[in-house]
Amino acid sequence: MAITVNGMLPGPTLEVKNGDTLEIEVVNKAKYNATIHWHGVRQMRTGWADGPEFVTQCPIRPGGSYTYRFTIEGQEGTLWWHAHSSWLRATVYGALIIRPREGESYPFPKPKRETAIILGEWWDANPIDVVRQATMTGAAPNNSDAYTINGQPGDLYKCSSKDTTIVPIDVGETNLLRVINAALNQPLFFTVANHKLTVVGADAAYLKPFTTSVIVLGPGQTTDVLIQGNQLPARYYMAARAYQSAQNAPFDNTTTTAILEYKSAPCPAKKGINGPKPIMPSLPAYNDTNTVTAFSQSFRSPQKVEVPTEIDESLFFTVGLGLNNCPPNFPSSQCQGPNGTRFTASMNNVSFVFPQSISLLQAHQHGIPGVFTTDFPGTPPLQFDYTGNVSQSLYQPVPGTKLYKLKYGSKVQIVLQDTSIVTPENHPIHLHGYDFYIVAEGFGNFDPKTDTSKFNLVDPPQRNTVGVPVNGWAAIRFVADNPGVWIMHCHLDVHITWGLAMAFVVENGFGELQSLQAPPPDLPIC
What are the Plastocyanin-like domain coordinates in residue numbering (predicted)? Predict the structure, then answer.
């Protein structure tokens, strides 16, 4: 049994146009609290529709319902939606496809077909039980048992092969694949045997096209690629497997497949009974950081963009793991992390604690005291060799519900710095309510003296989720023009569970068009 939307896994695809206003009623017939997040949607002034539980709303309780209302403005390409409560998103997710406005077209030749390729992660268990067990023991959660493409694991597992996802193509066609990483905890490599992929967009923003044989997506990221039917008519595997940057950490090392099938392929090949097996691609090694770096450094906006330059808020956030010493009243069964500890995670040494009785946005809007403070540190409370050998005394972060205040219209730069506490790792960091420009990435400790000169302020890519390099850093810039409370968190759900998150309070500007709308009457009660 799995929690699904409308009985579908993945859930229904939403197909809309740039400029459309959406009303989506969510009825919770499950036994768990639920919310839905529209990942990457700007939600200008409609923070009440963003969806993260206890951030912009209280959850929709079992038996309850809530209608999400928002407008898509100036975004085209592929986004997605998913649950934003506990680990429900393991099975509660789907594609959100945004086409150009009526009368407008793609900045590339119109593809013959379009196919959403949604990469998922599957447990032979209830994902809610998996995270609850980990929270109880303090250990890392059990790894998944499979990855999936459009809900199917493919031919390389002991289970199904008759239902393997088939993606049609024919000789001479150019088709668009909208690839989404909806996996819970794993960045993934994706490739198609014998076919090149031309990257044309990511996170609902167009890119300067470039061609590659493999793409990599952190959880939360989307990538639009063109594929040409220029090979012998046959069947070719598409495959995805883990990019694992954390050393010595166990992970799901299985491979999910789908089949790219030429319509004019000879008949026996189609039945797959006695016909030849589809051609299998080679995939990068699990720890192939060089391929990841080369891929992310190929990203450019199609033309010159307006990157904020006069920075008002220059922030530096460490992101990484931690270990809490076993509390004196805990039995050892609740401290099964390394050497009798409990896993945790933090940004700038603050491990984020979600409120439990009211959402942050409601507390902000109604001026309710005691729910959060606005003293999140803009720089690490203690400077250290972030990617070096870190003293064990720095492994224990401070729990807190700390937010950072931004004035409306302020120009913000954030350097996100990975740490080697417990283990360095590539962290996909997602900012709600905004797109941002990734102006630079690098390895080691960020050095403003030498690294600032490497910033791309001409045509950096625009994204909503950035893969902070393992043992490295990424610099992002945006203008705080969307009032509300916006969480920024690691999109590896195991890490958000441990506290790898923070939130911004963006104040209202002047007048109605620079202010958060009033909360809708059906906002779930707390």
Answer: 2-102, 114-264, 376-508
pTM for this model (two decimals): 0.97
Alpha carbons 415 and 351: distance in angstroms, whole number: 18
Q: Is residue 343 a contact partner of residue 498, using CB atoms and an 8 Å limit? A: yes
Question: Is 305 within a domain?
Answer: no
Contact (Cβ atoms closer than 8 angstroms) between residue 188 and residue 256: no
Query: Is 162 found in the same domain as 41?
Result: no
**Domain region containing 67:** 1-104
Token code pair at residue 452: 């600032």
Answer whether residue 77 is part of any domain: yes
Write the pLDDT tens digit of every residue in 406-448: 999 999 999 999 999 999 999 999 999 999 999 999 999 999 9
> Of 509, 488, 508, which is closest to residue 500 (Cα–Cα)?
488
pLDDT tens-place string over residues 266-313:
765 555 455 688 999 999 999 999 999 999 999 999 999 999 999 999
Split into its structural domains, the chain has a count of: 3
Question: 460 in a domain, yes or no?
Answer: yes
315: its two tokens: 């922030």
Q: Could you give the 3-state DSSP secondary structure of residue 162?
A: coil
Both tokens assigned to 475: 């610099």
Q: What is the pLDDT of residues 317-352, one digit of tens each?
A: 999 999 999 999 999 999 999 999 999 999 999 999
> Do residues 443 and 469 make contact, with C-beta atoms less than 8 angstroms apart?
yes
CA dihedral of 94, 124, 147, 4, whole degrees rounded to 10: -10
